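Example record used in the benchmark description.
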Amino acid sequence: MDVNTLNYYADILNRDTADFCVSCSPTAEIPDANFRRALNAQLNAIREDVANLQYLIDN
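Model output (structure tokens):
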């Protein structure tokens, strides 16, 4: 997974949940806030790892 893909998912996670869910489907359930925070933290850790790896590759 490249950095652009990770950024795409991070942007989705960082949007207002209610707006995002309603725009997807009027019947979509709003994800639990704790789940979103945990998922966002994991994603940020992955993004940092990818950025570090990219730095090592480039240098």
